[in-house]
């Protein structure tokens, strides 16, 4: 069935596992670079989604947009109405520690957030939600096989990209043990909890709140290939 935000009628055109970058053009890049026999499965609001095969396995890649309300809508529709079992977010993140460098890959063990998403949805009053452990274990094994180092830890899912107090991250790093910041995983993990499905999040460090180094918009769209390859090679 079609939903308000995904135009597809045929559930068979969506794979059981969906890779979900925030940027719909990162989804297009992945489809064009890595997938065979690609069909476009969504274009509503330009939130591009594609299904194809990778090494013979059916896989879907679709943008989530930026922020928790946006990924909240798309991931819920995929889990609830399109029979998707697992969503792996593949995003960019800002480092909260000088132990993380540009292009390093982070695997979210938990997402801590000040967001009211999970509470408002009625799924949890907790401020920290976990990724699905069995999916994370598979991702770690795949990364090891590919020889790509992965930093596993708590991440911060924030509602705000531009903060007035640029030093606020230090307190979140210290008190919550959050090693980097992005804007979607807490809602994705809440939706997985609400629907009994699986969710994980791989991130590439795009900038640092500590050193103020940063990658370009073009690099964020096309160059974060290590995390893409880990996600594509993870057999769920
Ligand atoms: O690169 P994506 O996946 O969009 O992730 C990060 O980048 C966006 C902010 O620039 C937010 O969506 C944040 O979570
Ligand atoms: O949400 C994000 C993503 C990348 N970099 C940031 O500083 N914040």
UniProtKB/TrEMBL annotation:
<keyword id="KW-0328">Glycosyltransferase</keyword>
<protein>
    <recommendedName>
        <fullName>Uridine phosphorylase</fullName>
        <ecNumber>2.4.2.3</ecNumber>
    </recommendedName>
</protein>
<dbReference type="InterPro" id="IPR035994">
    <property type="entry name" value="Nucleoside_phosphorylase_sf"/>
</dbReference>
<feature type="domain" description="Nucleoside phosphorylase">
    <location>
        <begin position="17"/>
        <end position="226"/>
    </location>
</feature>
<keyword id="KW-0808">Transferase</keyword>
<dbReference type="GO" id="GO:0005829">
    <property type="term" value="C:cytosol"/>
</dbReference>
<dbReference type="InterPro" id="IPR000845">
    <property type="entry name" value="Nucleoside_phosphorylase_d"/>
</dbReference>
<dbReference type="InterPro" id="IPR004402">
    <property type="entry name" value="DeoD-type"/>
</dbReference>
<dbReference type="GO" id="GO:0004850">
    <property type="term" value="F:uridine phosphorylase activity"/>
</dbReference>
<comment type="similarity">
    <text>Belongs to the PNP/UDP phosphorylase family.</text>
</comment>
<dbReference type="InterPro" id="IPR018016">
    <property type="entry name" value="Nucleoside_phosphorylase_CS"/>
</dbReference>
<dbReference type="GO" id="GO:0004731">
    <property type="term" value="F:purine-nucleoside phosphorylase activity"/>
</dbReference>
<dbReference type="Pfam" id="PF01048">
    <property type="entry name" value="PNP_UDP_1"/>
</dbReference>
<dbReference type="GO" id="GO:0009164">
    <property type="term" value="P:nucleoside catabolic process"/>
</dbReference>
């Amino acid at each position: 069935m079609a939903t308000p935000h995904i135009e597809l009628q045929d559930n068979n055109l969506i794979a059981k596992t969906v890779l979900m970058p925030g940027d719909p053009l990162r989804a297009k890049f992945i489809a064009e670079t890595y997938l065979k026999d690609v069909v476009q499965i969504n274009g509503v609001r330009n939130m591009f989604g594609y299904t194809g095969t990778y090494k013979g396995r059916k896989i879907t890649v679709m943008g989530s947009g930026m922020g928790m309300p946006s990924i909240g809508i798309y991931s819920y529709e995929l889990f609830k109405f399109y029979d998707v079992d697992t969503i792996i977010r593949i995003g960019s993140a800002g480092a909260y520690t000088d132990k993380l460098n540009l292009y390093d890959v982070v695997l979210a063990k938990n997402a801590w957030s000040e967001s009211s998403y999970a509470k408002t949805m009625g799924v949890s009053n907790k401020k920290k939600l976990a990724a699905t452990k069995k999916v994370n274990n598979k991702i770690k094994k795949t990364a090891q096989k590919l020889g790509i180092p992965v930093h596993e830890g708590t991440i911060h899912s924030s509602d705000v990209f531009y903060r007035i107090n640029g030093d606020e991250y230090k307190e979140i790093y210290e008190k919550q043990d959050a090693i980097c910041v992005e804007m979607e995983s807490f809602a994705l993990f809440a939706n997985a909890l609400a629907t009994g499905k699986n969710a994980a999040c791989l991130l590439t460090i795009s900038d640092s709140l500590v050193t103020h180094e940063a990658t370009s918009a073009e690099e964020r769209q096309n160059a974060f290939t290590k995390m893409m390859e880990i996600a594509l090679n993870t057999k769920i």
